[in-house]
Amino acid sequence: MEFLNFVLILCAGWVIWRRPEKERLAFGLLVVSCLIMALLFLIGTHTSLVPGVNL
Amino acid sequence: MTAPSWNRLRPVVAGAVIALTAVPVGGAVVLGVVFGESPCILCWAQRTSMVLIALVGLFVLRYGPRPKYLGMAVLLGTWGTYMSLRHAALHLARDVGQGFAMPFFGVHTYVWAWVIQWAALAVIGVLLLALKEKPADEEIREPGRLGGFAMVLFVVVVAANALQAFATTGPPPFIGQADPLRFSLNPRHWVWMDEELAGRISLRGSWTIPRPDPAAVDADTDPANGPLAGPPTLAIEAWERITPPLDGRLTDLARDPATGRFLAVTDRFEVSVLDSTLARVEQHVTLDHQYSIDLTPLAGAAFVGDTLAVLATNKSYVLLRPDPDADPVREWRHFRETSGDVVELRRSRFATVRARQMYVLSLAYDREADELITVSVPSTRQRRMVVSRFARGDLTLASEFVPRLGPGLTPSGPDRSLAEYVVTAATVVDGTLYAFSAAYSTVLALDLETKLVTAAYAVPGIERPVGLAVRGSELLVAQADGRVAVVERPEAKFNLR
Hints:
heterodimer; A: 55 residues; mainly alpha; 2 helices; B: 497 residues; five-stranded antiparallel β-sheet; 24 strands
């Protein structure tokens, strides 16, 4: 999944660089990448969402 | 934004994107290729968040500082700060020099991510402060030479990250790993997993430890249901009681073998020294449990020579000493109430290893070894009994062990164990730790040298035991209501030394 996310980010960077008129596409890719990143982190921490220290 | 303002800020944004892309993100790829360092699943998410912040920087370079870009950057910074805190918390409290994976300039990558997220938020704040003109328009902008370089660098570095991610985490549905293998360009060494999907969702995980009530342990009190088969019974020979009224429920009672005085503590932080007949209070204080060290309800008490040691359920302790010359001004910070003749010597915490993430409900003092002793109580997360010994000299852990059954004692079933006992009271005499369990109303005799439970006795008729003391040939079992049962002190069944 991390690989897929980096491909999406790469596409967003490419669009900004070479196809700047497609801003909505690039921003949509940014939003999707943010959501995938958050999902992957939550998967990695779902057995203890809060830091394992004295709060 | 006016042209001069944008021309001034553009190189700042481009420089930030280049620094973010080249150093932590590009540097991470170098660490992987050169040193074989692979990110775990949480590292991947943190690295991704930095890439995304850089990507937002490209948006700003190309389209200007539109509010939605700055809003997205702030969201990424706040989420990244949470991720960094959650991730770094796994390792921050370890011993000196211990961390996860390889440090970078002496600091581990999960902490660097924390610093970078903070820095990103700070940069965004500076940018917002600089935006004094009208909101940005909708034009596509030329990024300039530095901005153009930032875009090229971003695409190259992100492509390298994508390749590393493919090698170490694989294509969907595989995801990153908690303990990643070292990076290799050889496909034979690529291992793709989805093990992070396993396990139940929990807010606090292994830190979900319910705090026990030292005066009301919720447990089966019938000795016949206990984990040991057929323990003999000790009959209650007499009852005594603490005559003076106490503030709160009694949570431990200790006896000084030298003077015969008693030390009583309550769940409302009252500490009282009683005379040998339990009829008169000689000194008393009520601790300010919110001063300095966080004290949960008191659960343990012991005479350590002329020092009074009291212990909270969270293994925080306070050392007191009767002193007729106590300075009331100095002691005001320590005590909510005082008889005026007690000083506080020290307030700190016991640190344990095997008993970590476990509460305690008892405290004992071994005069021969000059050590304080606690016995952990089990929880749904930590099912074991741990005896922890602390040297009196430095009040640091001296040894810890999980007691085992001695010869002649047998479990009452294949899945039964000592971990089912909930020790709420303990005392030491002649190298034997007597520990009273509220669960199954049983007193255990534990040989401190061999670390074996050498005898167990059922004591029916006890309700909410909180304290255990030795008086000659008698064991005194104190209840939360202030009544004290007198039973004959049993000898350890086996001479194992």
